[in-house]
Specification:
This protein is mainly alpha-helical and 124 residues long.
Length: 124
């Protein structure tokens, strides 16, 4: 049987809403998770009352910072590892950038990666 997380009461919707606010919009959360904005909207509105395993594995790491400590036990689920603070800050900034600025940021990241690859002092 495939894993499904039932969206009971407003617990998960509250967590989803906090993540949406953090990432600036449903679209912002969708970009970070790889889950469609339509799915996020349906979960929040109650049109859909479950999250399947594939979607849960994508969205859970981004929701974990907003979940109460007893979430795993209450819902009998295993959560993906928490995203570190630096990744969350990066994701927040990314969600706020325009498309043009994202392209510039990607170019700069590629440049940094190239410099790091060619550096004799690269991190391991």
């Amino acid at each position: 049987m495939e894993f499904e997380l039932r969206i009971r009461s407003k617990d998960i919707r509250t967590v989803l809403q906090k993540a949406v606010e953090y990432y600036g919009s449903q679209s912002g959360l969708a970009r970070q998770t790889g889950v469609s904005q339509r799915n996020i909207s349906r979960w929040l509105s109650g049109q859909v009352d479950k999250i399947n395993g594939d979607l849960w594995s994508k969205v859970a790491p981004h929701l974990k910072p907003f979940m109460p400590d007893d979430f795993e036990k209450a819902y009998n689920v295993s959560l993906a590892p928490k995203i570190d603070g630096l990744a969350l800050e990066r994701d927040k900034i990314w969600a706020e950038l325009s498309r043009c600025n994202r392209l510039e940021a990607l170019k700069y990241m590629e440049q940094l990666r190239g410099e790091q690859t060619n550096s004799p002092h690269k991190e391991k």
